[in-house]
Amino acid sequence: MHNTGMNTSLGAAPGAGAPTEASRDERQADVVAALTAVLPRGAILFRHEDTAPYECDALTAYRTSPLVVVLPETEMQVAATLKVCHRMGVPIIARGAGTGLSGGATPHHGGVILSLAKFNRILEIDAGTCTAVAQCGVRNLAISEAAAPYGLYYAPDPSSQIACTIGGNVAENSGGVHCLKYGLTLHNVLRVRGFMVDGEPVEFGSEAPDAAGLDLISVVVGSEGMLAVTTEVTVKLTPKPQLARCIMASFEDIESAGAAVASVIAHGIIPAGLELMDKAMTAAVEAFVHADYDLGAAAILLCESDGTPEEVAEEIVRMEEVLVAAGASRIEVSCDEAQRLKFWSGRKNAFPASGGISPDYMCMDSTIPRRRLAEMLRAIGQMQSKYSLRCVNVFHAGDGNLHPLILFDAEDPDEMRRCELFGADILETSVRLGGTVTGEHGVGVEKLNSMCVQFSPLERAQFLAVKRAFDPLELLNPGKVIPTLHRCAEYGKMHVHRGMLPFPNLPRF
Amino acid sequence: MDQRDPVLARLIDQVERARSHRAPVDIRGGGTKAFYGRPPKGEPLDVAGLSGISSYEPTELVVTVRAGTLLSELEAALEEHGQCLPFEPPRFSPGGTVGGMVAAGLSGPARASVGTVRDHVLGVTLLNGRGEVLTFGGQVAKNVAGYDVSRLMAGSLGILGVICEVSLKVLPIHRASATLCFDWDENQALEQLNLWASQPLPMNASAWHGGRLHVRLAGAAAALSAACDKLGGTAVAPDAAVTWWRNVRDQTDEFFSVSDADLGNGDCLWRLSVPATAAPVKLPGRQFIEWHGAERWWRTTAEPREVRAAAALAGGHATLIRGADKSSGVFTPLSDVLMRIHHGLKQAFDPACVFNPGRMYAEL
Fold this sequence. Notes:
The complex is a heterodimer. Chain A is of the alpha+beta class.
């Protein structure tokens, strides 16, 4: 089982136009020699067997062998590496834990992977300011664990939080199940310290509430390693709510579940989490975690309240009223922490559970306006027959962020092809419904084609101009996020336009 | 936005003309924040005509508004549905627009707990210096497609482009609120605020001035009464509390009113943004503290150099809000590397340097 991605073969893959093997060896020798002058020998990997683990991130369908991998231990070594690469015109791809789902850390054939795994120390937890200073390679969950003795935690909780790093979270502007109430990475990061492409140190943001000048941290967070290299992050810590309780509500049809989500919000309630699973997903996770989910329901909503005991008591009553009025067929409220975690266990295991029912799955990540949820689910239902593939659905319903998991077998080339079309169809439908192609996983290499759909050529040119303002030579993570004009032109030719394939009468599957 | 919209078409024309003549334009909404930043120059580019709420879906918690829309009009529309702009944007005088609110990037008392204008920007349609109308971000809260250009516009003072339309995240108005006051000196107030901030309390805003601390709590009714019991202090009557916080938000409190005579005497209003736990800032003059200690307003005749040094010592920066002489700059000077990025971004959005030149920094 693996989570592969949209392996569309259009346009230039990273590292395309690669030099011949001989000239690559020569280039590699030159780069290694230059790096050896500034880094300890053990910090440089270039033999194939040593660099193989770095060939992909969690988007395993894309693999490229990097020219060199470096593992610096100090900021001085990071700066020195950047200077060497800048001088020699070598692309640099920063990498944290490699848990990204969109190929943001996919290597460049002629580039250096800058692994920041050794920057794994928490430098400070300050209960007074409610902040933590962590090196970029610190795991997301490790920050909350270190803050726990002070009654604090780091709110953004991407599902990979046991493994993903804070530096990677900054690169992707990661979300999680609690961002409806507590915001994204951007809303919880105060300061980013790092280096420009030429090795010059830089700080964005401040431990004060704002910094002078343009709000650069806004573009740096979520820039997928294309504007600067992050080495240290100051994050905001949140006082741990005294109590959290979760409601599990069943619905007999998808429409009323979608309407219930809108109704909760319309009643002025901002749940700490609001998640939806469809029937197929519920069946898959029940087999995996045995949490007594309602297998008869067309959709299950998890709706969480947190705060002081008084707040939670008041809010849970209101939530129940709204959900019942919206047509919930069954409602259960967690009575203790163990039961709350049990409710969540299935949702948290949605991805591995999908792996249990299919050889492969492709995870989509688009966001749509909440009120279009039911419409989107119906459209996905139709796509299942159109592409003859199954799809199970988990949504961060509260913020309209969808994670349809398309089930397929990567060994079967035709299934693979249909899966890609299915995925592209979901993304384009999302854009048409007023949404976006990626809510939290990033564009990376995976969604380059979809960027052609969402942004005009002028908008993409403006993105590129922003990149050049930070990185004039385009050496930081080149080829990611912003598709070339050529690529978009090629994609346009085979565009699955409004659900119609080119040559719609040809039998395909 | 439809580029054939006559108002937008006129703006595009004017930008095209300005670009070909390399003549600066001064982007204007309601003109209520003309005092903010370095003095405006250039031919006015009037965005006020670009008005109206384009879409509002209360269940989406998102409103899309054209930039010239009056802030008061937007807030009234939200209030009808029990929603608000949670960051409490200040209104220095009637007539302020939504575009001006975003471009200035100023937030009010509740910013301490709910975040800034920038945090609530979801998308923006922008007219850049090449006369191109571009849309970034969108109308959904979770969106990581491309760089977050829309949030970069918050507080950009119009130096990158003309904000034409903006989508904002809105929130329900709190079900209940309560204001408490405490007669405490600066040290004691700061110490208590820092202590409370690390606890799960429904603290929404705070303001200390002249030996008295006001704290506003907001949230579920049950939580408020528990928190009021815990915090102690004296309850402020609801009407009086509303007036008090409005005067803080809009700077109509006596502390913030800087007369021409004051200006003539070299009296200035400074805003110091510092970590909330910074020790008391030592300057001659009077002080007003907000944002749980992170925003420290000063009325002082001290030299700019002295004020900036005090802010730097506290780990933050200082902005000259009102002063007779802005020749030494309004915002804290940037490091070389940050200024280089600013130049790069200016070039990327406005290569002919027509938009609000010098409004933020003399060289931009």
